[in-house]
């Protein structure tokens, strides 16, 4: 043993021992509703919640000592009597029939395994070799010089595996008995303590409790022998059956309770958002591992009242049987916090009963995404989104205003316009009634294609594309990326007509920036994120400033006056009255103002043959984007008859969400930018 021990580097052992004094085991992360109290679901690889020794029943503390290390309070990390006893027993059996590991040694092994960063370290921590055993003994002795017996016992009880995915005493108490560790009786504690040696063999939840009962009784006898129980109490306890109240903890977004099923989509967006945050690791895998092992407390950003309105107005309960997805996202101007996310689908992994896909190229066995799906249909995942049509006219208009062009910029828009800038491309308007002299107010209100192609020429298509990027849009298809590239962006004339794919999340957030006087805030699915010690989760900016991860991240993209001018024009499509100009007599969604009942701006959007339809609307308080499209087959047109659905969804949601709130008006633009 001395020869083997000499091979171990003393410095490495001391370094690892110091690590174990601060290392904590993996812990479950909890996702809360906006009240910060209601648990929606959890994220874990190992279900565990760290519990202080003062919150663990003395019965449990005594039972684990009786089960695993009778001399725990007498030795100093290594028990010489135990080593000698195991040596004799193993020599007689020509194998390993008895262990000599103390609770401290077992904790060292568990802590080394749990803190391992690669498979090699895991193997080294658990390998059945003399070298590993000697290192373990050395570290156990050193650890007892640094930590008290109570600290070691606390860490052991929080690290041990009890079976049924229960890691640590909190999880074991909840899973097997549906109670806290502080409430455990002597019988229950002895049952759990008996599991640590072999969770599968002594599993009390199996059909035959014979071995589990025998192991429990062994622990009870030891508790009596050590003076923790009287002989009569131990005998009476041994006569009791094992009474379980099994609980299976929810894990991940599919486990969100059914009454909040639609919230699963925001939960799913949270995971995708989390996986992109450098604060939680260097890559996606590290970040998701941190979510499942870091013990975070996460509070969602949604507003239950707004979410309920969104769910009602896209028919999450009554309209799930259509291939056309009708979804809505509501964002808060000035913070970027997502206040609602709903779609006429059920959030569920069970898709076997879904009908076949409407896409003829999908294959004969591919299921559609309704009524059940976990696809990120509203954005935040890997799906490209949907062509957003004329809602994109906001970007060249905003770019022109920010470049100094006034709202009354006038152009005699023909029904059909041949663009020499875009190599003879010749778009036309949806109706001959759109022809004639137009300004930004009337051109936006009537959605005059030829006016906006001309306006985009004046400011430069690339400027509009780059502005859209600054407002959060991303190009997810090869075609969009090619057109948005520096080499081709200035020739992307059709950009203003919304030929690019976008998501409701992106569009709600982009329009929210206009509502916030040109201040763009990244989409944020949380109100708060707390570390396991209760402190807010933080990250360090490139400039060296420490900031909370859950705080809004905003930047000024265009001038406040340009944003206010764009809003003034955007009041025209909704039937509202702008502060400074004329809408030209009619608009594409003139019912919105009457429905919302307060100042409102926005824009309609449809694609060729009405394959999809959109409406993005906003007040000073909220921005909402709704779409209707077939996510499985973009060529399955929704038709003109359903193009009003997003308009109604946004109008009704804004009305319901703001009911009872004070009416706020938009700040009018300056005379300078009106022209």
Question: Outline, from the CA principal axes?
Answer: elongated
How many alpha or pi helices?
Answer: 25
| Number of β-strand runs | 19
**Helical percent range?**
25-40%
List the uncertain runs.
Answer: 1-12, 93-98
- In the sheet with the most strands, the strands line up as 5-4-19-18-17
Average pLDDT confidence is 92
Distance between the termini: 91 Å
- Round the Cα radius of gyration to an integer and report it: 32 Å
Percent of residues in β-strands: 5-15%
**Biggest sheet overview:** 5 strands, antiparallel
Structural class: alpha+beta
Structure overview:
With 675 residues, this protein is α+β, with helices and mostly antiparallel strands. It has a five-stranded antiparallel β-sheet, sandwiched between helices. A hairpin with a 6-residue loop joins strand 17 and strand 18. The radius of gyration is 32 Å and the shape is elongated. It starts with a helix and ends with a helix. Mean pLDDT is 92; it is low at 1-12 and 93-98. Residues 40-223 form the Glycosyl transferase family domain.
List keywords for this structure.
about 675 residues; alpha+beta; 5-stranded antiparallel beta sheet; 4-stranded mixed beta sheet; about 40% helix; disordered N terminus; peptidoglycan glycosyltransferase activity; glycosyltransferase; cell wall biogenesis/degradation; peptidoglycan synthesis
